Sequence to fold (1629 residues):
Amino acid sequence: MKKLIISIPLLIILAGSLVTGCKKSQIDNDYFNPDNAVSASVSSLYSGLFYNEKVMPRYWNLYTFLIPMMGTYSQTAGYTNSGKVYEQAVNYTKDRWDYFYTTTIARYREIQKYYDKLSTDADKQGYQIFLETARIFVYDQTAQMVDMWGSIPFSTAGQLNATSTITPPSYDNASDIYNSILTDLKRISDYLATAAPDAFYQNQFNAYDYVNKGSITKWRKYCNSLILRLAMRISYQNETAAKAIIQPILSNSTQYPVISAVSESITIQPSSTTSTLTVVNDMRSGFGVNPFAPGKMVDTVMVPSLDPRLPVYFTANKNGQYHGVPLTWNSTRVSDSTTANYFSRWDSTTFTENNLFPGIIMDAAEVSFLKAEAYERWGGGDPKAAYETGIRQSIQFYVGINNKSDYSGAKEAMPSDPTITAFLANPLVAYGTNNLEKIATQKWIDFNIMQANQAWAEWRRTKLPKLTFPTDPSSVLSPNVPTRLLYPSTESSLNSANYAAVKSGDNVTTKVFWDVK
Amino acid sequence: MTKATIRLLLIVLAGIWSITGTAQEKKMITGVVKDSAGNTLPNVTIYEKGTTTTAVSGMDGKFKIPVTSPRAVLVFSSVGFDRKEVTVGTQESLTVSMTGEITSLEGVVVTALGIKREQRKVGYATSQVLAKDIIQTSPTNFASALYGKAPGVAITTNPGGATSAVGIQIRGINSLSYQRQPLLVVDGVVIRNDDANNEGYWGGNQRLNGNGLLDINPENIESINILKGAAASALYGSDATFGVIVITTKNGKSAHKGLGVDVNLSANMENVSITPDLQTEYGPGYDRATNKSLYGADDDGWITQTVNGQTVYRPAFRAYGQFGPKVDGRQVYWWDGQMRPYTSQPNNWKKFYRQGSSEIANIAINNSSEKGNYRLSFTRNDYKGIQIGGKQEKNTFNFNSTYKVNSKVSVDLVASYVNEKVHNRPRQIYYVTNNYGGFFSPVDYMDVYFQKYQTSKGYKWVDYNSNLDVDERLKYNIRAKDFLDFLWNQLANSFDETTNRLIASATLNYNIVKGLNFRGRYGTDYTGYYAEDKERSQQPISFGASGVYGTNTNRFVYNYGDLLLSYEHGITQDLNFTASVGYQARRQMYSYNSAYTNGGLNTENWFSISASKNNPTGAATRSVLDKDGLFGILNLSYHDFLFIEGTLRRERASTLAPGYNTFYYPGVSGAFELSNALQLPAFVTYSKLRAAYGVVGNPPDPYKGNVAYISTPPGNVEGIPILYPATSNFGNTQLKNEQKKEIEFGWENKFLKNRLGFDITYYNDKVVNMILPLSTPATIGSSSVVVNVGDMRNYGVELSLYGTPVKTKDLSWDARLNVAFNRNKVVALMPGLEQLQHSNLDNGSLLVISQPGKQAGDIIGYKRRVDDKGNYIINSDGYYDINFDQQSKMGNLQAKATGGLINTFNYKNFSVNFLIDFRFGGQVISQALLYGTGAGLYKNSLFGRDADHGGLPYYTDKNSGKNVQVADNVGQGPNGEKVFHDGMVLKGVTADGKANATVIDAPSYYENTFTWGSWPGSGSTSTYEAAVFNNDYIKLREVSLSYALPRKIASKIKAQNFVISVYGRNLFYLHKTLPYLDPEEGVGTNWLSSGTTSGQGNAATRSLGGSIRVSF
Fold:
């Protein structure tokens, strides 16, 4: 018993010393990952929004999505007409889908959340420039999603970021999304026309906006040009509405300036190969999936019209000729001709070895072609001038990219005026006949493989240029070129209640609402 | 504790009171207990057999016990010694010598926190495996030696040989998403062990990784105790949901007194165990129509080409299918530009693998004296696996010592240092077996691939359409380019890993006063890992920089400490208690640094960061985990037949948010030794009942619950800070701990003086608040969110049956059968959640899911449509119609029964041992076999291809394009159409109920029926049911034959022991249901990964070898 008397206090002392052994604060402190930030801000989330690997020329997007699928569906890639060529690589379309929601939408919702949390009116007013310009980009990306899929979740998407709840979103009707975007872009355009943030906020905006370097004017031009693009896209489905949106913009360049010079093109341009916007060799790896020139574009348009962009876009074959891959050849013949170095490839200086290729958001040529189409169809301006400006801008834009390339290969000189004038006079190009087709064709060349998703959308809208897609008998799912992408399986399995509303249209032949021709 | 348990305990207690006998006349016996060396032994329990009288020897080894019976028998027992029975007779004073310090281990188990307890006093199931059973066939790690040896313990080997991880799963799945490896405790210290390759091919490392347990050298292990249930491991709290493996290493005491030396040498050959049966009759190509339209081939699949003015033939080597020209031995223009005979190469896979080897040399010195003992050992392993290109070298130093400072204080020092070098660890062959881009043809020559993966100038192989090296490029487009890449990666490039690991601990034992003991322990497990990645320049620098140099450094540090104060006291003569309090803490740190060249090497094959064309890239990540626990233990023993233990642990873990990070884990267990309490029939040697209940937990990995913003990559954009939210595995600040509550009952019996026995255990656990990164539609903003998702139950029976059917002077036969049955059920999921999706293969073609009320891990997919009589519906094209309206169950990944049968025969100096292990129930998924079947690689795709293989004659009508079946002797169709003999008519009915008569050609049948992708809207006629296989097997796992040199002869070389053995491991299957593959080819260490990846890791290995073990 005596020993028990000794030992009990000992036990207590020991126990007491043990409890303090590991400090509670240490256990609590080690909860957070020291490499992540516990909270964010409007400005840092804003710069995160534009870090978009579908806008920048990234290996993954090029290799899995843009070249094999978008390139095939728009014939901007020189693909071989082998079996199941129109079938969608569903894992990769899912990847594109997920990227939009977990990146663009999620980041946008976080910006909104942090904006709503701002406590002073001054902050709210000052940071509004961040919020509204972010919206332009988000709307641009959203419209691209609608162009590929049709109806998509939009207004209720991203609830996890907005409200920290797992709330599967409903699907918004594709044309409703377009309408709401067009309405809001108009509002933003009017806001930007008068926006003048205090220096405190403007200086932050200058620093964080690496797209337009804080230039509100450039944001206005992007905003109005985007309205043009989207309104023109619905112009066959609802011509009245499109006209009503487009004409006020084109008739009032003071209130609604648009991108009108190559230098005003909206791009994300890496400053150097050491920039974090650059991933070295990504273009090379991305084009590894299929480096070849498209047959129709090269052999029936660019070569016969002596297009000055040929040496900028493509490498000549060993005989100094330019040839794309024809869709009528079997794969053995294509393979043999490839071995014989018959086909041209995308140019190494401009594209495949260019580590400074910009992320193209909207280029000047596209806007000029949009103008040309509007003037051609509805009057109000000189379509020929707009069309020819567009071609000149396209040449200048790609020669510029070529000349900025970090690749050691020879750079292309800007074609001389007589060369361009001769090109503009070539019957395949000259304005006067088949004007809409010529506008569409030149826009298609301007988009090329780098904006193949836009090329695909415009072709579906206009059915121009006239592309022939041979039927693929080996495919049950997609014997012909699809008119939209399939929803990812995660939507049907995990968002089944909302998916039910769009299920009946979830096939490769449903047309996006503006696809009426 | 359930009411039933309480009731049972009450009955047991009542029984005990009634047993306590009436007073009888007593005689006092005194004496002293000593060990074999003559030292006095304290704490020896002495009781009179058939009574409840007990005593304990004092510090001086003296004891005093009253006996009643005139022919009293005293039983002496102590931890670490053989039980000894002494007939008192007329003696009043005894000197008892206890022996068997080495052999008696079977009576002692090391339980939680390194506390040694007599096995008979333990109230929960433990499984013990001893040194001799581990090293019989010289495995390179201890876990591979556990196959079939402990009921309820299932082993999974990552294929790839000695450098690949081994997974251990105890009592089924205990977490749907965070299933981990059991806690590994070596000499009382928690050490690093982990899973490997469970992320799939794309999610993580494409090499077959190892895990921490590989560094525990089997040669140094004295015993392994496996704590299976929650009560057994509750003291480890939130580390213990998956059981605990307690390893005790050999120390100097375990040999004879004085200096001893042990030398062991073993060597074995390793060969590929099972390769697929390739069909040998057809070469590359698709169905006739495709060959013609895609390649311009003729009806037989031949492509004609003119090379240097000569007409040459070739099949479509670009095709992944093997439905091309029949093998006819003709000269073919090969893809490397040579002419080669067109023959089949059935041994391609055997040629792909090589013969590997394993050599192990071990030397150990031990010494013991009054003041203590030590053991020092060195082991060298040299290993080459069956996959080309890799090797491993490993040195292990081990030191284990005990030093007695004085009679009250002793110190144990244990240190183990492992130095390992691995060159080109085996890669998963996913790219060759699970990917059409890597399929090589059965007519391909393996040596051509081995020549062509690099050019003669040492650059990477050049594709047919590349201009890098026109002379050496492929002559035309082929299929298996990913296979060439695989060879380039594994043979031309090098990836060298160096690991240095130190596991060290110091333990202080202090006997403060009699009955009061203190133990303090500190241990560390430090691993420094350094890897160098040298990827050769793929092309001349003039075409652009290529090649990679990179290094990465990992550091794992586990710091562990525990304190234990225990007090032992007898309240009355019959009732003893031991009370302990303790504290345990662990801090686990991981850091990773890497530096890589960027944009290629600016000088070819200059492997240096300085050679980076662009600014090199670097990365650094880290993580910290803290856990601590305060615990108390109360042991009660009543007489010598009832033993009760209660434990409670209060724990904190840093991986959950403040406010959610403190938990309590109780445990209680009781053992009731019937054979001591009751007078049982004479043939019952030993009988014990057990009951236990406990709670353990499993918090998430560090930082999983964090809701935070990420900055990298890229960290900043041209200097501008960026932040963004997580795109998957979104955090959750209210995450709770997973907890497992388990109850178990057991009954252990030995009969006929241990000639026969059995041990049966029933357990039932419930895991609540399971944590899962719940797959969510990405449209909410993240593709998964970490949540507490539901509850699950496991229950099962474990049975060991053992005996010695034969025992004579020269011959003995020992046998043991272990069987475990586990059943599992998901009890509930969070509201609104109908099912959990664990795995989604090929865009939903096959899912692994769990649904409430059902077993976790159901495999579901789309099956062929059948009519109400069960006939297949055949579509208008003549193919199976797949029912995409509903997903049907195709199997489940979990095994129903696992176990092993161990037999040991001893005849004079010879000993033969063989171990069979088995698994029944459950399915495995092999996409490799599905794709391979559709590609016509295997013998299972021969049916229907020609008349000899049951192909039907038919012609394709010129006008309608439809196939028309004709009689055997018809030469041509009505319009002169050619008759082909590869027709098939699938058995089934058409949509309108008529028997199907549509003729399809066999190649199209295989291509369309066993192919990638089967989901609604895919239009596919393939079902992934063809990728699901039953996975039952019975395997002859180990056979060893050893011969011990007679002492006389051995002593001539001064050896005390000299044993020569030959052995084989993973020999062959007595029965298996998975075709073409070894059931152990799945990748990864957990159930989900290894069950869904069959055939994409590496082939399994068969080993044959021999060893010599000498003791001096």
The longest strand of chain A covers residues 359-362. The two ends of chain A are 101 Å apart (CA to CA). Chain A touches chain B through 103 residues (CB under 8 Å). The longest helix of chain A spans residues 121-149.
